[in-house]
Amino acid sequence: MYDVARRFEQEGNRLSASHRDLYAGHRARVTATLLAAAPPAAGSLCLFGAGNALDTDLPALLARYARVALVDIDDEALGRAVAPLPEEARARVTRHAPVDLAGIFEAIEPAPAPPPTHTTLAPLVAPAVARIAGAVGGPFDVVASLCVMTQISWAVVRAVPPGLSQDGVREAAFRVHLGAMLALLRPGGQGFLINDLISSEYHPLDELPPDTDLLALFHELVRTENFYRGSNPNLVLRLLRRDDALKGQASSPRIADAWLWRGKPDRTYLVYALSFGRT
Q1: Which of 1, 10, 175, 215 fits as disulfide partner to 159, beta carbons 3.0 to 4.6 Å?
Q2: CA distance 16 to 21
Q3: What average pLDDT does the segment 23-28 reach?
């Protein structure tokens, strides 16, 4: 499963590397969100799913953060991300790859019998969180996940063999992902989970009037459950508020913003930013 997920991400990163212009508006919103969260001086930032750095303006972030950690399953993509940086800026960036930000793919391969349940998957979560946190270090003032949860979900669809519950594996992977973000945040730090909720393939986002209230649209789509399964904000909020391992670490999770992103010439995405604090 891990190898399938890694190849899937590597292929996607190679194909997207030459399309930086398509990310311009999305990149500006993500970067503005992270700049607004920067501490007054000498802050540290960790980016999950940094890839080719298409989602972020690394030079702008390095002008405000003293240290930036890039985490991804694809080391070649991180190499492309830092290549344009001047030497001084590159020296303040650490690359961590390959890191499986789902954390459990290797642990459930090959498929056990009987198929794992929530009860049998649960013991895999804490060791996976510890592996990710140990690989990256920290703590950080800000940790952001850049549309990783939908990528994890697509990898689950492609990699989970017959006999395993995709929903069970997906939820366990999300618990690992959120747990790792919290483990890497300093007390009082801030986390941002940035996800693509849905695309114009399933809702006419490319036909919206310019003055559309995107947060109101977001809440309506969530109410009617019109979203990618891998970016279910209700699941994320439930885990942060009620999961025994997470609820004592996360504070004030909320939907902070929403915007449109034309990620392909023929497709528009509704993206949201969910923020939470570290107790």
Answers
A1: 1
A2: 10
A3: 95
